[in-house]
């Protein structure tokens, strides 16, 4: 089968033939229809410091996908050939304290699909049945392909109650944009998102934010004044991993404010802990999705009318992967989709 492979310990990717994956008694074989390009995939393509430490070549990339089940192992009873599915990209041990307690998203032995084992940028992918999410209601294929990052957005946005709250989101990348759509849909009063890319801020306006603020020319305090906020933001969603973004967020939170952090910093940086203590601000780190409570919430949100299509800005056949990756790496658009049927 055709697959997109990190075949050498150097920058670049190769579209090449690899063996079709085999399945065990508890596994599912899936014909891939669409995939989404993630920041993780961009790191592996560029072969940066993180990728050099995390990845062993050769490796089939990819963890965001939708496909159709073509075969199941003998022990799989609730998934059938023909089912349309996405996959949870964190494979857990099932034996540690958190796994046994039902907190699988906190497993210390997590292996990432497309990072620690061959992934979904291929014509077929195999997964344990316990990692497969069946789409019981109709869903657009492009949207189903990005359920993994959509789950990151939902997990972050719903970390704290949102009804009637004023929400600040720093970083208008694809996940920040999806989180903004979720916050608005979930009943936030005002949703403010910040970035330095006017293209991405335009996408934020399409998903219905109250204010899309370019912080290269304005401050978050300016945004507060424009919206008439007197005491700061109630909930912060930090999606950028940028030190200045977190500092500005902390400085603009109300007393007792709550911050969920998904953005992953590339280095350590100082934080105004005195402000966090004296303002009684809560910080909560977010990684991945809750299995499978977040997935249930994602499906229900879509059934309830949440529209993610404005977040998807690039669509390519898998043979045009170079152009697709360049588009995703540009930092100006939203999610980029690869079509594996083209």
TrEMBL record:
<feature type="binding site">
    <location>
        <begin position="286"/>
        <end position="287"/>
    </location>
    <ligand>
        <name>NAD(+)</name>
    </ligand>
</feature>
<feature type="active site" description="Charge relay system">
    <location>
        <position position="40"/>
    </location>
</feature>
<keyword id="KW-0963">Cytoplasm</keyword>
<feature type="binding site">
    <location>
        <position position="64"/>
    </location>
    <ligand>
        <name>Zn(2+) 1</name>
    </ligand>
</feature>
<dbReference type="InterPro" id="IPR011032">
    <property type="entry name" value="GroES-like_sf"/>
</dbReference>
<feature type="binding site">
    <location>
        <position position="107"/>
    </location>
    <ligand>
        <name>Zn(2+) 2</name>
    </ligand>
</feature>
<feature type="binding site">
    <location>
        <position position="96"/>
    </location>
    <ligand>
        <name>Zn(2+) 2</name>
    </ligand>
</feature>
<comment type="pathway">
    <text>Metabolic intermediate biosynthesis; 2-deoxystreptamine biosynthesis; 2-deoxystreptamine from D-glucose 6-phosphate: step 3/4.</text>
</comment>
<feature type="binding site">
    <location>
        <position position="38"/>
    </location>
    <ligand>
        <name>Zn(2+) 1</name>
    </ligand>
</feature>
<feature type="active site" description="Charge relay system">
    <location>
        <position position="43"/>
    </location>
</feature>
<keyword id="KW-0862">Zinc</keyword>
<feature type="site" description="Important for catalytic activity for the proton relay mechanism but does not participate directly in the coordination of zinc atom">
    <location>
        <position position="148"/>
    </location>
</feature>
<feature type="binding site">
    <location>
        <begin position="262"/>
        <end position="264"/>
    </location>
    <ligand>
        <name>NAD(+)</name>
    </ligand>
</feature>
<dbReference type="InterPro" id="IPR013149">
    <property type="entry name" value="ADH-like_C"/>
</dbReference>
<feature type="binding site">
    <location>
        <position position="63"/>
    </location>
    <ligand>
        <name>Zn(2+) 1</name>
    </ligand>
</feature>
<keyword id="KW-0479">Metal-binding</keyword>
<dbReference type="GO" id="GO:0008743">
    <property type="term" value="F:L-threonine 3-dehydrogenase activity"/>
</dbReference>
<comment type="pathway">
    <text>Amino-acid degradation; L-threonine degradation via oxydo-reductase pathway; glycine from L-threonine: step 1/2.</text>
</comment>
<comment type="subunit">
    <text>Homotetramer.</text>
</comment>
<dbReference type="InterPro" id="IPR020843">
    <property type="entry name" value="ER"/>
</dbReference>
<dbReference type="InterPro" id="IPR036291">
    <property type="entry name" value="NAD(P)-bd_dom_sf"/>
</dbReference>
<feature type="binding site">
    <location>
        <position position="93"/>
    </location>
    <ligand>
        <name>Zn(2+) 2</name>
    </ligand>
</feature>
<dbReference type="InterPro" id="IPR004627">
    <property type="entry name" value="L-Threonine_3-DHase"/>
</dbReference>
<dbReference type="Pfam" id="PF08240">
    <property type="entry name" value="ADH_N"/>
</dbReference>
<feature type="binding site">
    <location>
        <position position="200"/>
    </location>
    <ligand>
        <name>NAD(+)</name>
    </ligand>
</feature>
<keyword id="KW-0560">Oxidoreductase</keyword>
<comment type="function">
    <text>Catalyzes the NAD(+)-dependent oxidation of L-threonine to 2-amino-3-ketobutyrate.</text>
</comment>
<dbReference type="InterPro" id="IPR050129">
    <property type="entry name" value="Zn_alcohol_dh"/>
</dbReference>
<dbReference type="InterPro" id="IPR013154">
    <property type="entry name" value="ADH-like_N"/>
</dbReference>
<protein>
    <recommendedName>
        <fullName>L-threonine 3-dehydrogenase</fullName>
        <ecNumber>1.1.1.103</ecNumber>
    </recommendedName>
</protein>
<feature type="binding site">
    <location>
        <position position="99"/>
    </location>
    <ligand>
        <name>Zn(2+) 2</name>
    </ligand>
</feature>
<comment type="function">
    <text>Catalyzes the oxidation of 2-deoxy-scyllo-inosamine (DOIA) with NAD(+) or NADP(+), forming 3-amino-2,3-dideoxy-scyllo-inosose (amino-DOI).</text>
</comment>
<feature type="domain" description="Enoyl reductase (ER)">
    <location>
        <begin position="12"/>
        <end position="338"/>
    </location>
</feature>
<comment type="similarity">
    <text>Belongs to the zinc-containing alcohol dehydrogenase family. DOIA dehydrogenase subfamily.</text>
</comment>
<dbReference type="Pfam" id="PF00107">
    <property type="entry name" value="ADH_zinc_N"/>
</dbReference>
<feature type="binding site">
    <location>
        <position position="175"/>
    </location>
    <ligand>
        <name>NAD(+)</name>
    </ligand>
</feature>
<keyword id="KW-0520">NAD</keyword>
<feature type="binding site">
    <location>
        <position position="195"/>
    </location>
    <ligand>
        <name>NAD(+)</name>
    </ligand>
</feature>
<dbReference type="InterPro" id="IPR002328">
    <property type="entry name" value="ADH_Zn_CS"/>
</dbReference>
């Amino acid at each position: 089968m055709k697959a997109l492979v990190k075949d050498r310990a150097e920058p670049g990717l190769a579209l090449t033939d690899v063996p079709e994956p085999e399945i065990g008694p508890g596994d599912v074989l899936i014909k891939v229809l669409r995939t989404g390009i993630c920041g993780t995939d961009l790191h592996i393509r560029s072969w940066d410091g993180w990728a050099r430490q995390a990845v062993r070549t050769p490796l089939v990339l990819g963890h965001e996908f939708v496909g159709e089940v073509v075969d199941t192992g003998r022990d799989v009873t609730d998934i059938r050939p023909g089912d349309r599915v996405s996959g949870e990209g964190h494979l857990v041990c099932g034996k540690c304290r958190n796994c046994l307690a039902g907190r699988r998203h906190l497993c210390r032995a997590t292996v990432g699909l497309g990072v620690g084992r061959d992934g979904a940028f291929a014509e077929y992918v195999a997964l344990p049945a316990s990692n497969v999410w069946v789409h019981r209601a109709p869903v657009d294929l492009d949207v189903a392909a990005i359920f993994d990052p959509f789950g990151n957005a939902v997990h972050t946005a719903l970390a704290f109650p949102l009804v009637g709250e004023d929400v600040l989101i720093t970083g208008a990348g694809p996940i920040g944009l999806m989180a903004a759509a979720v916050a608005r849909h979930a009943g936030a009063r005002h949703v403010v998102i910040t970035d330095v890319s006017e293209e991405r801020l335009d996408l934020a306006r399409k998903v219905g934010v109250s204010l899309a603020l370019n912080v290269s020319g304005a401050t978050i305090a300016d945004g507060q004044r424009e919206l008439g906020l007197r005491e700061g933001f109630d909930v912060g969603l930090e999606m950028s991993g940028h030190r200045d973004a977190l500092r500005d967020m902390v400085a603009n939170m109300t007393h007792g404010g709550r911050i969920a952090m998904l953005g992953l910093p590339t280095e350590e940086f100082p934080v105004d802990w005195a402000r966090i203590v004296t303002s009684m601000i809560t910080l909560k780190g977010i990684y991945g999705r809750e299995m499978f409570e977040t997935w249930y919430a994602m499906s229900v949100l879509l059934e309830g009318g949440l529209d993610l299509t404005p977040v998807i800005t690039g669509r390519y056949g898998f043979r045009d992967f170079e152009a697709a990756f360049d588009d995703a790496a540009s930092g100006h658009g939203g999610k980029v989709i690869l079509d594996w049927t083209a």
